[in-house]
Design brief:
Layout lengths: L1 H24 L3 H4 L8
Length: 40
C-alpha cells in the first residue's frame, strides 16, 4: 500500500512539474508564426 501511495504522489509531482515547464515554453500562434509570409 505504501508503494502505491508513493507512486500516486510521484505521478502528481511529475504532472505538476510538466505543467509548469510546458506552460512556460508555450507560445501563441501569433508569436510562433510571426514572419512576413505567414497569415493567421
Amino acid at each position: 500500500m505504501k508503494a502505491f501511495l508513493a507512486g500516486c504522489v510521484a505521478i502528481v509531482v511529475i504532472a505538476g512539474g510538466a505543467l509548469l515547464i510546458l506552460d512556460h515554453y508555450q507560445r501563441s500562434s501569433e508569436a510562433a508564426f510571426a514572419t512576413t509570409g505567414a497569415r493567421i
